[in-house]
Amino acid sequence: xxxxxxxxxxxxxxxxxxxxxxxxxxxxxxxxxxxxxxxxxxxxxxxxxxxxxxxxxxxxxxxxxxxxxxxxxxxxxxxxxxxxxxxxxxxxxxxxxxxxxxxxxxxxxxxxxxxxxxxxxxxxxxxxxxxxxxxxxxxxxxxxxxxxxxxxxxxxxxxxxxxxxxxxxxxxxxxxxxxxxxxxxxxxxxxxxxxxxxxxxxxxxxxxxxxxxxxxxxxxxxxxxxxxxxxxxxxxxxxxxxx
Length: 243
What we know:
The chain has helices spanning 3-17, 29-36, 40-52, 82-87, 109-112, 151-156, 158-165, 184-190; strands at 56-59, 63-66, 71-74, 93-104, 119-129, 132-142, 170-181, 197-207, 212-221, 225-228. It is of the alpha+beta class. The protein is elongated, with a radius of gyration of 21 Å. It holds the Pfam family GntR.
Protein backbone atom coordinates (compact mmCIF):
# COMPACT_ATOMS: atom_id res chain seq x y z
CA UNK A 1 0.00 0.00 0.00
CA UNK A 2 1.34 3.44 -0.91
CA UNK A 3 1.98 5.95 1.87
CA UNK A 4 -0.83 8.31 0.83
CA UNK A 5 -3.26 5.37 0.64
CA UNK A 6 -2.25 4.32 4.15
CA UNK A 7 -2.87 7.83 5.48
CA UNK A 8 -6.22 7.99 3.70
CA UNK A 9 -7.29 4.60 5.10
CA UNK A 10 -6.27 5.57 8.64
CA UNK A 11 -8.28 8.81 8.56
CA UNK A 12 -11.25 7.11 6.91
CA UNK A 13 -11.36 4.40 9.59
CA UNK A 14 -11.49 7.08 12.29
CA UNK A 15 -14.32 8.86 10.47
CA UNK A 16 -16.37 5.68 10.00
CA UNK A 17 -15.76 4.48 13.55
CA UNK A 18 -16.98 7.80 14.96
CA UNK A 19 -13.65 8.77 16.48
CA UNK A 20 -13.77 11.79 14.18
CA UNK A 21 -17.16 13.52 14.22
CA UNK A 22 -18.64 15.91 11.61
CA UNK A 23 -17.27 19.38 12.23
CA UNK A 24 -14.11 18.16 14.00
CA UNK A 25 -10.96 19.86 12.85
CA UNK A 26 -8.33 17.52 11.42
CA UNK A 27 -4.66 17.88 12.27
CA UNK A 28 -2.72 20.32 10.11
CA UNK A 29 -0.72 19.08 7.13
CA UNK A 30 2.46 19.68 9.14
CA UNK A 31 1.17 17.62 12.08
CA UNK A 32 0.14 14.80 9.77
CA UNK A 33 3.57 14.86 8.12
CA UNK A 34 5.17 14.34 11.54
CA UNK A 35 2.64 11.71 12.61
CA UNK A 36 3.11 9.57 9.50
CA UNK A 37 6.74 10.56 8.76
CA UNK A 38 5.98 11.55 5.17
CA UNK A 39 6.28 14.59 2.94
CA UNK A 40 3.63 17.28 2.68
CA UNK A 41 2.96 16.22 -0.92
CA UNK A 42 2.02 12.73 0.27
CA UNK A 43 -0.32 14.14 2.91
CA UNK A 44 -1.96 16.47 0.40
CA UNK A 45 -2.71 13.61 -2.01
CA UNK A 46 -4.51 11.71 0.77
CA UNK A 47 -6.48 14.77 1.89
CA UNK A 48 -7.44 15.73 -1.66
CA UNK A 49 -8.81 12.25 -2.31
CA UNK A 50 -10.84 12.31 0.92
CA UNK A 51 -12.18 15.75 0.03
CA UNK A 52 -13.24 14.63 -3.47
CA UNK A 53 -15.00 11.63 -1.94
CA UNK A 54 -16.93 13.91 0.40
CA UNK A 55 -15.33 12.97 3.73
CA UNK A 56 -13.44 16.22 4.37
CA UNK A 57 -14.13 19.95 3.96
CA UNK A 58 -11.00 22.02 3.38
CA UNK A 59 -11.51 25.70 4.16
CA UNK A 60 -8.83 28.12 3.03
CA UNK A 61 -7.33 29.96 5.98
CA UNK A 62 -9.16 27.83 8.55
CA UNK A 63 -8.07 24.25 8.08
CA UNK A 64 -9.53 20.85 7.25
CA UNK A 65 -12.74 19.60 8.87
CA UNK A 66 -14.66 16.33 8.95
CA UNK A 67 -17.62 16.67 6.57
CA UNK A 68 -21.25 15.98 7.36
CA UNK A 69 -22.16 12.31 7.03
CA UNK A 70 -23.36 11.26 3.60
CA UNK A 71 -27.06 10.78 2.95
CA UNK A 72 -27.71 7.03 2.82
CA UNK A 73 -30.51 5.59 0.71
CA UNK A 74 -31.60 1.99 0.40
CA UNK A 75 -31.40 -0.08 -2.76
CA UNK A 76 -33.65 -2.80 -1.38
CA UNK A 77 -37.29 -3.87 -1.20
CA UNK A 78 -38.71 -0.63 0.15
CA UNK A 79 -41.33 1.93 -0.78
CA UNK A 80 -40.37 4.20 2.10
CA UNK A 81 -40.56 7.84 1.19
CA UNK A 82 -37.33 9.72 0.67
CA UNK A 83 -38.21 11.95 3.62
CA UNK A 84 -38.60 8.90 5.89
CA UNK A 85 -35.25 7.44 4.84
CA UNK A 86 -33.54 10.76 5.47
CA UNK A 87 -35.37 11.53 8.73
CA UNK A 88 -33.92 8.49 10.51
CA UNK A 89 -30.48 9.95 9.78
CA UNK A 90 -31.39 13.15 11.62
CA UNK A 91 -31.75 15.19 8.44
CA UNK A 92 -34.60 17.18 6.90
CA UNK A 93 -35.66 16.17 3.39
CA UNK A 94 -37.27 18.15 0.60
CA UNK A 95 -38.66 17.18 -2.80
CA UNK A 96 -38.78 20.15 -5.17
CA UNK A 97 -40.73 19.86 -8.40
CA UNK A 98 -38.93 21.47 -11.35
CA UNK A 99 -41.30 20.53 -14.14
CA UNK A 100 -44.48 18.50 -14.64
CA UNK A 101 -45.91 18.00 -18.11
CA UNK A 102 -47.73 15.51 -20.31
CA UNK A 103 -45.79 14.34 -23.35
CA UNK A 104 -46.28 11.66 -26.03
CA UNK A 105 -44.64 8.33 -25.20
CA UNK A 106 -42.46 8.41 -28.36
CA UNK A 107 -39.25 6.49 -27.58
CA UNK A 108 -40.71 5.32 -24.25
CA UNK A 109 -43.56 3.53 -26.05
CA UNK A 110 -41.70 0.23 -26.28
CA UNK A 111 -40.71 0.49 -22.65
CA UNK A 112 -44.32 0.96 -21.48
CA UNK A 113 -45.89 -1.14 -24.29
CA UNK A 114 -47.93 1.84 -25.44
CA UNK A 115 -48.61 3.56 -28.74
CA UNK A 116 -46.04 6.33 -29.51
CA UNK A 117 -48.83 8.93 -29.26
CA UNK A 118 -50.05 7.72 -25.84
CA UNK A 119 -49.77 10.35 -23.09
CA UNK A 120 -47.04 10.00 -20.46
CA UNK A 121 -46.45 12.27 -17.49
CA UNK A 122 -42.92 13.58 -17.12
CA UNK A 123 -41.94 14.59 -13.57
CA UNK A 124 -38.65 16.39 -12.91
CA UNK A 125 -37.56 16.81 -9.31
CA UNK A 126 -34.62 17.84 -7.18
CA UNK A 127 -34.17 16.33 -3.73
CA UNK A 128 -32.41 17.91 -0.80
CA UNK A 129 -31.21 16.84 2.64
CA UNK A 130 -30.55 19.63 5.15
CA UNK A 131 -30.87 22.11 2.26
CA UNK A 132 -28.08 20.41 0.26
CA UNK A 133 -29.02 19.10 -3.19
CA UNK A 134 -28.44 15.34 -3.29
CA UNK A 135 -30.34 14.15 -6.35
CA UNK A 136 -31.87 15.13 -9.69
CA UNK A 137 -34.54 12.77 -11.01
CA UNK A 138 -36.74 12.48 -14.08
CA UNK A 139 -39.71 10.09 -13.83
CA UNK A 140 -42.15 8.98 -16.51
CA UNK A 141 -45.58 7.57 -15.61
CA UNK A 142 -48.26 6.52 -18.15
CA UNK A 143 -51.33 8.75 -17.99
CA UNK A 144 -53.73 5.81 -17.89
CA UNK A 145 -51.96 4.33 -14.85
CA UNK A 146 -52.23 7.49 -12.73
CA UNK A 147 -54.05 10.32 -14.54
CA UNK A 148 -53.52 13.86 -13.34
CA UNK A 149 -50.54 13.68 -11.02
CA UNK A 150 -50.26 17.03 -9.23
CA UNK A 151 -47.43 19.16 -7.85
CA UNK A 152 -48.44 18.06 -4.35
CA UNK A 153 -48.24 14.39 -5.38
CA UNK A 154 -44.78 14.83 -6.88
CA UNK A 155 -43.42 16.67 -3.86
CA UNK A 156 -44.89 14.08 -1.48
CA UNK A 157 -43.96 10.67 -2.93
CA UNK A 158 -44.66 9.17 -6.34
CA UNK A 159 -44.72 5.59 -5.02
CA UNK A 160 -47.05 6.54 -2.17
CA UNK A 161 -49.25 8.43 -4.64
CA UNK A 162 -49.47 5.42 -6.94
CA UNK A 163 -50.41 3.12 -4.08
CA UNK A 164 -52.62 5.38 -1.97
CA UNK A 165 -54.30 7.69 -4.49
CA UNK A 166 -54.45 5.52 -7.59
CA UNK A 167 -54.53 2.07 -5.93
CA UNK A 168 -51.68 0.86 -8.13
CA UNK A 169 -49.45 -1.38 -6.00
CA UNK A 170 -45.70 -1.12 -6.51
CA UNK A 171 -44.38 -4.69 -6.32
CA UNK A 172 -40.85 -4.63 -7.74
CA UNK A 173 -38.21 -2.51 -9.37
CA UNK A 174 -35.25 -3.24 -11.59
CA UNK A 175 -32.35 -0.83 -11.11
CA UNK A 176 -29.27 -0.28 -13.21
CA UNK A 177 -26.45 1.54 -11.41
CA UNK A 178 -23.27 3.06 -12.77
CA UNK A 179 -20.82 5.87 -12.10
CA UNK A 180 -20.74 8.84 -14.47
CA UNK A 181 -19.07 12.24 -14.51
CA UNK A 182 -21.33 15.29 -14.28
CA UNK A 183 -21.65 17.30 -17.49
CA UNK A 184 -22.51 21.00 -17.57
CA UNK A 185 -26.27 20.43 -17.28
CA UNK A 186 -26.19 17.83 -14.49
CA UNK A 187 -23.56 19.78 -12.57
CA UNK A 188 -25.75 22.88 -12.74
CA UNK A 189 -28.83 21.01 -11.49
CA UNK A 190 -26.91 19.39 -8.62
CA UNK A 191 -24.90 22.51 -7.72
CA UNK A 192 -21.83 20.37 -8.31
CA UNK A 193 -18.52 20.54 -10.17
CA UNK A 194 -18.35 19.64 -13.86
CA UNK A 195 -16.56 16.32 -14.15
CA UNK A 196 -17.28 15.30 -10.56
CA UNK A 197 -18.47 11.70 -9.98
CA UNK A 198 -22.20 10.91 -9.77
CA UNK A 199 -24.21 7.78 -9.17
CA UNK A 200 -26.54 7.24 -12.11
CA UNK A 201 -29.52 4.97 -11.44
CA UNK A 202 -32.04 3.91 -14.07
CA UNK A 203 -35.16 2.36 -12.52
CA UNK A 204 -38.06 0.43 -14.01
CA UNK A 205 -41.02 0.00 -11.63
CA UNK A 206 -43.62 -2.75 -11.95
CA UNK A 207 -47.16 -3.18 -10.58
CA UNK A 208 -48.72 -6.39 -9.28
CA UNK A 209 -49.80 -7.26 -12.84
CA UNK A 210 -46.14 -6.90 -13.88
CA UNK A 211 -46.93 -3.79 -15.87
CA UNK A 212 -44.31 -1.05 -16.11
CA UNK A 213 -45.89 1.87 -14.25
CA UNK A 214 -42.86 4.13 -13.88
CA UNK A 215 -39.48 4.61 -15.49
CA UNK A 216 -36.91 7.01 -14.09
CA UNK A 217 -33.31 8.07 -14.29
CA UNK A 218 -31.63 9.74 -11.35
CA UNK A 219 -28.32 11.46 -10.74
CA UNK A 220 -26.86 11.56 -7.22
CA UNK A 221 -23.93 13.64 -6.01
CA UNK A 222 -21.15 11.19 -5.27
CA UNK A 223 -19.64 13.32 -2.51
CA UNK A 224 -22.68 13.40 -0.23
CA UNK A 225 -24.66 10.23 -1.00
CA UNK A 226 -24.13 6.51 -0.62
CA UNK A 227 -26.30 3.41 -0.73
CA UNK A 228 -27.06 0.29 1.27
CA UNK A 229 -28.15 -2.98 -0.31
CA UNK A 230 -30.00 -5.56 1.76
CA UNK A 231 -30.50 -9.09 0.49
CA UNK A 232 -32.85 -11.73 1.87
CA UNK A 233 -32.27 -15.43 1.38
CA UNK A 234 -34.92 -18.09 1.67
CA UNK A 235 -33.88 -19.79 4.88
CA UNK A 236 -31.55 -22.31 3.25
CA UNK A 237 -27.93 -21.95 2.33
CA UNK A 238 -27.11 -18.70 0.57
CA UNK A 239 -26.33 -18.88 -3.11
CA UNK A 240 -22.58 -18.43 -3.24
CA UNK A 241 -22.89 -16.75 -6.65
CA UNK A 242 -24.38 -13.73 -4.88
CA UNK A 243 -21.31 -13.11 -2.69
